Amino acid sequence: MASQPLIGSLHSRSSRYELKYFAGPATIERLRAEIAPWAQPDQYARHRTGHRYLVDSQYFDSPDLTLYRATVGGHKSRFKLRLRSYDDGSDSVFAEIKRRVNDVIVKTRSRVSATVAEQIEEWTLGGPRPHLQSGGGLESFVQALSLLEARPAVRVRYQREAYETVTPPIVRVTFDFDLAYSISHGWGHAAIEPAWHHVPVEGAVVEIKFNDVFPAWLADLVHTLELRRQPIPKYALAVSDAGAHHARWLGSGSVGLPFLASTLPRIS
């Protein structure tokens, strides 16, 4: 069966809460079983093998990694800039600004073609500024890139297994597996380090996303399984691992990154 495109409107803005946890294989199996009466694979995952699809994101940052530093510094108000695509066979790429304000996530995304996405990347690397329609989230995305003098930093991908509650209020529960990154100049350029490097995370990153109230049944399940909420920024994990193992990407090594990857918990 043909994959359903993972696309929405041309411009969109949403806000929600996101709770993140690490979970090992046994805990993931229990989670699947326990949420089954309440949730089913979402519309994009239900026809996929293992109910999983690929999420592929090119992150941008300033030359001194301002956005990375805000994340590892635990700033209460911070944001990320990325171009995101899915393995749905479409030509769509999403230009996204993902902001965190305390515990609330606000995401603005604009759908563009792969050609426009590559033009944006070319521009951040010194090419001509792309001709874009004014207004909407895309203009904000490009303005943020310009203010930061941002460039492609790392490309991050993982397999997402996604579930959604069948009745309101809608809650999403996702399991993200096989987190990997590439040190690259973006989709349209040869990678500095062409191989995909796996971040040492056993099991999966579990994310629970909701708009208003954390459902009692799910809160009880998290408590029963002794899941511990913690910040798990995939972009920061990738940059930290790159700094620890691929120092030439960081020049002379004088950047002084706190290498999160070396302190990741091992999960059984």
Describe the structure.
Helix content is 24%, strand content 36%. The chain has a single domain, classed as VTC, catalytic tunnel domain (mRNA Triphosphatase Cet1, Chain A, Alpha-Beta Barrel), CATH 3.20.100. It is globular and about 55 Å long. The protein has an 8-stranded antiparallel beta barrel, surrounded by 5 helices. It has 268 residues and is an alpha+beta fold. The chain has 6 helices and 10 strands, in the order βαββαβββααββββαα. β4 and β5 form a beta hairpin.
Fraction in beta strands? 35-45%
Low-confidence stretches: 1-9, 251-268
The span between the termini is 36 Å
Quickly count the domains: 1
Strand order of the largest sheet: 1-6-5-4-3-7-8-10
**CATH homologous superfamily label:** VTC, catalytic tunnel domain
State the helicity in percent bands: 10-25%
Number-wise, the strands total 10
Provide the CATH topology: mRNA Triphosphatase Cet1, Chain A
Q: What is the H/E order?
A: EHEEHEEEHHEEEEHH
- How big is the Rg? 18 Å
* Top-tier CATH class: Alpha Beta
Count of helical regions = 6
Mean pLDDT: 85
CATH-scheme architecture: Alpha-Beta Barrel
How is this structure best summarized?
This protein is of the alpha+beta class and 268 residues long.
Q: Which terms would index this structure?
A:
268 residues, alpha+beta, mRNA Triphosphatase Cet1, Chain A, 24% helix, 36% strand, disordered C terminus
Topology:
Elements lengths: L10 E13 L1 H11 L3 E3 L10 E10 L4 H7 L4 E10 L5 E10 L2 E10 H11 L11 H13 L2 E15 L5 E13 L9 E6 L5 E7 L5 H9 L9 H12 L23
